[in-house]
Amino acid sequence: MTGVRKSLAKVEVALRWDPSGFGAPANDLDLVVAVYGTADRYGEPAYVVHFGSRSPDGTVTLNRDSHTGQGFGYDEVVTIELDRMAPALGRVVVGVVIQDPGQDSGAGGALTKNFAGVSGAGVRIREGYTELAQHGFEAIPAATAATVAEFTRDTEGGWSFHAELRGFDADPQEFTRTMGAAR
What we know:
Strand order of the largest sheet: 4-5-1-7-8
Strand content: 35-45%
Number of helices: 1
Largest sheet: 5 strands, antiparallel
Structural class: mainly beta
Low-confidence stretches: 1-5
Mean pLDDT: 84
Shape: globular
Number of strands: 10
């Protein structure tokens, strides 16, 4: 018998953070998932899932959405069913973006919150009970958004995981346009 190759099937990305201090605007972080076609893995995404939305084929679902970080455990959780994705889809990029009230509060549109200002922020990526990665955002304190994971399909249809902590200084709209661009 030759070697058995195991591909990723259903993964969960969970995000946590601590609530903001008394009197301060709420910390609101959001998971964003961009799915790209096999023909154009670094171009425009086939679709983007964020803020309680769901993918058109039901393979990407945001299970929990918090606007404050209050509660125990992970505040936002997204499930990605890689094994159910159409063969025309070949790359999935997962990111985290800070919803910044400073953009709406007369700060001239300037971003006022970054990962240094959000305590307890961290992400866990797993398949079933197998942890693929877990980390915080200490390496990118000045960033306002970050990619945290990349999943790619190989020529045989199997999915693999790549740790992808990369910081951005971008508002949510700009981040969703640039998060999957080639480096």
